[in-house]
Amino acid sequence: MAHVFNLVGGSITKHPSVKNYLDQVIKLIGIITRQKLLAKAIVDEGGGRVVRPVPTRWYSTCAAINSVMRIKPVLGSLTDRPECSPELWLPILRDERLWLALNNLKTYFDGLSKIIEASECYHSSLGKSFRSFLDFGYSLFHDLPQSKPFLNVAKSAFVYHFFRTDIDLLLAAYIVDPNNRVRWLTDAAITRGMKMLARIIVESSDQFDRSSGESDGNSARGDDDDDGPFLEIFESEFMRYLSKATRRTEVIEDPLNFWKRNREFLVLKQAGVRLSCCQSSSANTERFFSALGRICSPTRNRLSVHSMANMLAILVREPPSRPSRKKRNQKLVAATQERSEEDFGSGELGGLLSELSIGDSDNLPETDLEDDSRMFENTSEYERFKAIIDFDQEQPGPSGGQARRSRLSVAERAERIAERISFRRGEL
């Protein structure tokens, strides 16, 4: 998900009107970094150091815009100092259109940086990350003034990359996160998410049958042609969960633990556990490899796998209780072996930044971005998007669950019943 967020920013920077202003920013930063006396004077005056956009950092474009905006008043106080070469940067400083554009662009890039950072945290998940993506979209379509410059460029980039994701998987993860309360999802989106959840559950049960050696055709649910009762239970649980989720008011701190301890939705629980422990970014895996590289170094190369697993577990989670050394080690080893099924907590491994830059537009595909003069809401792309996400939908209230349930048409439920056999055969 973090990579998708980065591509949204990259598409914004590719728009000709935005690119012209960013070229001016890069030119100003280049002047400052080459003029040592100017750079020193800016630091001495409290402006700090400027940040150059780097192709290997996601946040560099946002950091560059913020650093240039920060030093603008300092530059204004250095115009009468010849040693600072004001003739080189004074035309850029006096370009009010540039600073107005940067102030507007800062809104979009700051928002993208926040959701990228959130998606790379240890406690991030697919459902939570997709919710932050929708929150960003809601701010574009509702919170910001619709006359704001570059808004249609940002909307077009958001919708274009929305369809570059695995929508069905994200919808399923979004639904099983009880904190989301299926907000902004249309009935068609809920149906797509329900189908994906059913497929995940069927595949999980098939894997269980194979691992338990039940290859004689009689599975945990019955024969291959007897999926009807099993999926009827799933559908009943899903509708009850949907009704309760839309009425929920309390915040679930740990959705994974919520599903692990759940005793009400035993079938839906299989998909809830799997999706709640899915990380939204590969940054955690990269951090683990970096941590292992520091643990197992050329001068420390005789550690056993058991020792490295214990040391890595200490790095990524809080120290456990100490009833005994033997029990403590057993818990550490078990926790390490079950990494793919548990939340990694909120530990830090150094805050390493991921690769690619929001401003690195050379490696991005061409996109059909809308011009500011055109109302984006009238485009076919937005109509496709609105069939899945409805930002005009009100927040579900106490009776929202029953209203949502009644809005599901009989035709849709009949379609789901007719497709039960195809779930097992993987024909969806």
Structure in words:
It is built from 20 helices and no strands. With 428 residues, it is an all-alpha fold. It folds into three domains: 134 residues, no CATH class; 157 residues, no CATH class; 59 residues, no CATH class. Helix 1 crosses helix 8. The longest helix is centred in the middle third of the chain and has 25 residues.
Number of domains: 3
Range of helix content: 55-70%
Report the β-strand fraction as a percent range: under 5%
Give the count of helical stretches: 20
What is the alpha-carbon Rg in Å? Answer: 26 Å
Give me the strand/helix succession: HHHHHHHHHHHHHHHHHHHH
Distance between the termini: 24 Å
- What is the β-strand count? 0
Overall 3D geometry?
A: flat
The largest sheet, given as strand count, sense and whether it forms a barrel, is: none
- Average per-residue pLDDT, rounded, comes to 75
Low-confidence stretches: 214-225, 318-326, 328-373, 396-411, 423-428
- Find the structural class using helix and strand composition: mainly alpha
Short overview:
With 428 residues, the chain is mainly α. The chain has helices at 2-14, 16-34, 36-44, 60-76, 86-93, 96-119, 126-143, 151-162, 167-176, 187-211, 228-247, 255-260, 268-276, 283-295, 305-316, 325-337, 380-386, 400-407, 410-418, 420-425.
List descriptors.
428 residues, 3 domains, mainly alpha
How are the secondary structure elements laid out?
Blueprint: H1 2-14, H2 16-34, H3 36-44, H4 60-76, H5 86-93, H6 96-119, H7 126-143, H8 151-162, H9 167-176, H10 187-211, H11 228-247, H12 255-260, H13 268-276, H14 283-295, H15 305-316, H16 325-337, H17 380-386, H18 400-407, H19 410-418, H20 420-425
Helix pairs in contact: 1-6, 1-8, 2-6, 4-6, 6-7, 7-9, 9-10, 10-13, 11-18, 14-15, 15-16
